[in-house]
Amino acid sequence: MSKILIIDDEPGIRTVLSDIIKDENHQVFTGGDGFEGLTVLREESVDLVILDVWLPNMGGIDVLKEIKKEYPDIEVIMISGHANIDIAVKAVKLGAYDFLEKPLSLDKIINLINNALKFEKLKKENAVLKNSILMDDKMIGSSESMQAVWTRINQSAFSNAKILITGENGTGKELIAREIHRKSSRSAGPFVEVNCAAIPDTLIESELFGHEKGAFTSAIARRKGKFELAHGGTLFLDEIADMSISAQAKVLRAIQELKFERIGSEESITVDIRLIAATNKDIVGEVSAGRFREDLYYRLNVVPIHAPSLSERTSDLEELVSYFMEKFKSNTSEVCKTISKEGLKFLRAHKWPGNIRELKNFIERINIMTDEQVISAETVKYYLQEDKNVYTQSNLDDEYSEMKLTDAKDKFEKQLLIQKLEQNNYNISRAAEVLGIYPSNLHGKIKKFGIEIKK
Questions:
Q1: Per-residue pLDDT tens digits for 48-78
Q2: Which part of the chain is CATH 1.10.10?
Q3: Which of 52, 120, 134, 340 is most buried, by the most CB atoms less than 10 A from its CB?
C-alpha cells in the first residue's frame, strides 16, 4: 500500500481522485491548498503527490518547488484545467513526473499513478543495488556458530520483529543486519545505519529525529532524521549501548509508537520501519549498572543474535583467508596468493583480538608486502608478530576506547590502586605514600571500588 497525497482546492476533484486511488488499494491524504499539503508531508512519509497548478494562497508551481527542495525523492504529478504548454514545460523542468489536463481521464490517471509508483520503486531498488555493490564484504563461514547465526537470520528476516545483535568489535554485526534487511520484505526500501557511539549527546536527537529550520543556532534548514529516512526500510542502530540515558528515553518512545517530532516542531511524524540494534558491550551488565534502560532492552531484544568472535569459529579461518585473498588479489595477477599449511597453523594459533576485521587487514597487508605466491610460515609469523607489537602498544586504547571518561578514569584508578597495594603487600600506609595520597583517602577509595584487602 502506497501513500498518495492529493493537493487541490476543488472538493469534488479531491473526492473523485480519492475514491479512484482507494479502489487501487492505496492510502490517501488530501489538502485544500499548498499549506495544507505541505503540512501533511511533514507528518506523513508520502510516496506520490498529485498537485493542482492553480491553488489559493500558494501557487502549485511554488508548492512543487518546495516539495522538490524538501522531499526530492517524492514524485509529483501536476494537474490543471487552465494550463498552457509553458507551465507544463516549467513543471517538468522543476522535477514533476508528468502533467495532466482536466477533465481527468480515469484510465489515464490510474496508469500514470501506477507508472509513477513503479518509477519510485525502481529508484529505491537501484539505490539498494548500489548500496549492496558498495558493501565491503559478505558473510563467510559454515562453522556451527555461524550456522546458528544463519538460522536466526532466516527465521526472523521476513518478520518485523526487532533484533538485537551482540558481539565483539570486528565480528561483522553490520553484515548480519544488512543480510536480514536483504532477505526481508523491505529489501527494496532503505537501509539506514546510525553509529550511536560516533554522535555527541548534544546531536543525537537531531540525527535520529531531524529538526526544523531555526530550531537551534546551526539549524539553517530543515533536516530529516534517520528514523524518517528509514521509512519503508530498516533502521540499524549500531553501538546502541553508547547512547545516553536521555536519548534512550526518546528512542524508546519512538519505537513504541513509530511516531516522533522533529526538533523545533510540534507536528508528529509517523514512520514504518524495522529496527535492528547492535552493541559490543555486555548489555545485561549495562542494564544492571543502570547505564541502559531495562524497558528499552526488552523492547529491542525480541530476537537476539550473537555474532561469534573469530576464536569461536576457527574452523572458518581457511574459508575466510581464501575469501580475503581473492578480494585483495593484485589487478595484474590472474590467480590469488595462498598461505602454506605451516603458515595457516600460525594463523589458527593467533588470538585475533580484532576478530574478522583484524584478519582482513592482515591479509590485505600481506598481499601488498610480500611477493611470495605461496606465503611461507616465516612471512606469516613475521607479520603476525608485527600485529602483536601493534596490539601490545595499543592495549590501553583497546581497553578504554569504548568507555565514557568517568568510567575509564574509575577503571584505571582501581587498577592502579590494586597494583600498588599488591606491590606493597597491602600495607595501606606504604601504598598511600607511593601513590602520593593520605592513608585516609586510600581507605575511602578502597571502599568506593570494593577492593579486597588481602592479609
A1: 999 999 898 889 999 999 998 888 888 999 9
A2: 405-449
A3: 52
